[in-house]
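PT: before anyone asks, these are the final sequences, not the draft ones from last week. 1030 residues across everything. Please model them as a single complex and drop the result in this thread when it's through.
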Amino acid sequence: MTQVYQEPSLGPSGSGDAVLDVRDLSVLFPSEAGTVEAVRGVSYRLRRGEVLGIVGESGSGKSVSAMAVLGLLPDTAKVEGSIRLDGRELLGLHDDEMSKIRGKQMAMVFQDPLSALTPVYAIGTQIVEALQIHTEISKQAARARAIELLDMVGIPDPKRRVDAFPHEFSGGMRQRAMIAMAIANDPQVIIADEPTTALDVTIQAQILDVLKVAKEATGAAIVMITHDLGVVAGFADRVMVMYAGKPVETGTVDELYYTPRMPYTIGLLGSIPRVDEGVKHALVPIEGNPPSLVDLPPGCPFRARCPVAVPVCASVEPDLESATGEDHPSACHRRGELAAGTLTAAEVFPVPELPEPASARVPREQRPSVLELDDVHRHFPLTVGTVFKRRVGTVRAVDGISFDIRSGETLGLVGESGCGKTTTLLEILSLADPSQGSIAVFGKRTGGLRGSERKALRKDIQVVFQDPMAALDPRLPVFDILAEPLRAHRWAKEKIGPRVNELLRLVGLEVGHASRFASEFSGGQRQRIGIARALALDPKVVVLDEPVSALDVSIQAGVINLLDELKARLDLSYLFVAHDLSVVRHVADRIAVMYLGRIVEIGESASVFRRPSHPYTQALLSAIPVPDPHKERERRRILLDGDLPSPTNVPSGCRFRNRCPKFKTLSEGDQRRCVDEDPALTAQGPDHEAACHYASVLEVV
Amino acid sequence: MSALDAAKEIDETALAPIVGGGGRGRLIARRFTRNRLGLFGLIVIVLLFLAAYLGPYLTHWQLTDIDFDNFQTGPSSAHWFGTTQTGQDMFVLTMRGAQKSLVIGLIGGPLTTAIAALVGSVAGYAGGWLDRALVWFIDVMLVMPSFLLLAILSPTFKGKTWLLFVVLLAAFAWMITARIVRSLTLSLKSREFVLAAKYMGVSAPRIILRHILPNMASLLIIDATISVAVTILGESGLSYFGFGIQPPDVSLGTLIGNGQDAVNTYPWLFMFPAGILILIILAVNFVGDGLRDALDPNAAGAKAKAKRKQRQTDEESLPGDTTVVEIAQ
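LR: through. Structure below.
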């Protein structure tokens, strides 16, 4: 039974208490290639205090629809439909009118808080400005209110901080300030566009917390736009999944997460790496890319990537309808089967099998070590003055780390931005002598290498960078990009062509693509080219610097699986650097957690995840959102205070102590030890060490 | 079935003829020939060269011939471009001038940019003391009164080949571009693709040649095309004051210099050499634009056609590789 989807009645007063009512919103952009149908019919209704999560990949139209609601789209955009705020139609209002509404009744929190704040004015001045534009308020009163707001969003010492400039704030604090500005005028609706995407996971947890506070303080409805199904699981009341400019499924969080009725949602849920899963298994990639929004062919836009497409999908685009009459509509022709359970999620996207690397069967101790770091330091001098340089301090970017990687093994190096993981990686890749300590690749110390020896060693250790666009020379066709390492190591000319073709096939690209430029590929394909280049010289160790963090989730899964498979096939060892513990969970055999230039916990992956012993690891793990609404609501987050201290100013004793939740619970005598004594790594179990004086296991996932 | 196997399967069915020669050189040549204006410019330059070197054989007048029947007469069937005050044939003079100016411009312009690119990129990429020394050298060269120096130096080079003169002209014109190149290199140096090449074991000179310089190709090409014009005009300036190309030899610059007083009275003395000069500069600019588009994968001209072609091939190959139109988030 299929019914045309009707909005559910909204309590006794009907649609009257909907703060924001969006109907059939569509946005068209004229472009050289043709009209871009960025948004094609979005409808939603928000009540006071309700949180709607809009989830989708980049280009799905989620941000554009939010911009349309705020009236912030360029004049060239054609916006149709209806947007009612408190019963008042917004579409067609003049920009002057909209300016009165924006910031007062509707507020926005942007993704990048640095570019959303004016760098030349103090934070307080900007909040005062936001207040004075919309209300008659004296400067003193506005300033007092600004301090109050900053206090509310959890900025320490707001009286002093109110005069600070945006660059003096860390990313997390800037986002707090943005939220303070957004709630300054008690808005009815707050639109948050990927508010936590640019932030570290511990900061993300703080910001989500602040948003909850903001919601309670103002009673505003929140539209939360994100690509991360995990972020909204514990926060939103309703979720709308968008694909190719259209909502393809909406429902309450529980319905959507536990009984998805659209293959795309099923795929998205399956492609997210999760920290809470016990056994390691392959992720479910959604093959292909989202369609271009110019000249969309008839039929379901997801058809080309859908594993359960039927002939009707090619001709008729399914409407957003409910299969059973309940409030859970989806845009799929087979929604009936999905609802009835005759088509299960496992049938839609079967989990691919992962091959086991041959070396994994040999016990770790018996495998040779491929990369060994012993007490590696990298300090940068901090100087002032241009002519006479005076040393005023030291940036302790890497401050004594040791680990080793055995053949066929993946070590995940995890930490927040600024913890020194990138410096560590560059230190390894430069194959030079570190400030202190030693690095050995295949037992060969990198310190005293001659130029030719170093070049020969480079063959064995290769790198894949984070941003696949930046890592590929935009001026070179793919063939030359892949041939470059071969030419640099003087391969015979006639061997280069076949090798490039072999590499392209190895990473699942077509041989015919060799003459194209990198810009003609999608993000996931570009990263595959980056991987192919790293593999060109048959390296033994590949250093992966956040290789999937710039990719959409559905694409990310494909790349992670590829990495897993290549590792097994080619018997590679990986050093996988990432800030995202859930990705690392899927890839790594061992994990090292870094904090402020040191490794605070290291060990076998399952052991670290199941029995995290260092308070920092526990906080990191607890901060990762899980795409499971029930679990998410029950979980208790360990919120860390403040931000990562600067590596120029490392605290005495244990460097984590001023943010440590455990430190606060200790008696004064016990605290003394943390202040005076730098904790060393101590064994917590077989292949599991943590650097904490009072290490104890705490299950957090 | 894993992603890899899936991709492999598709691959085997769509295994295109091996594209071994997908190298950059050929690709750029192909993209350049797609650009009509660039190709037109190239043809004009070739024709100008042919005319400059073969043109004088079409008429029986020689460079040193003086026609005592025609002093300062307009274009006629005997003298296609008219004659000068001393009865020399303007056509022969102009062609001779074009020979010199074409060679001076086309060698001097790119040479200027090449010196700038070399010094700027080496300074930027190497850093440290080499950078400081080179920047100091650039600054010193910048404050030198180049015209004066050229004037002083020119007697030394008298009687030597005039090509040396081209080198001198280039040697005093590269500094500002070098500073720009250096600052661009500094920003490119930290880009990941340069790091990637470095960690692959690619040597520094190769990185500069293959990654740094091509990524500022637009700037270099525009600079080179402008330098062509600047060098030709610079040479005329010096020749006008008696340095550089000396009579009885001529260049377009000396011809224009001599003819500029007679623009209104005897326009052919000025118009023909000036017209040829404009033609050279225009053609060089067209070629420059064409090259820039051929080198730049994002250039509109080369891409629009590439896109159309790509769409055709895409229909046959797997659907996963259409360029995604990303909406500004």
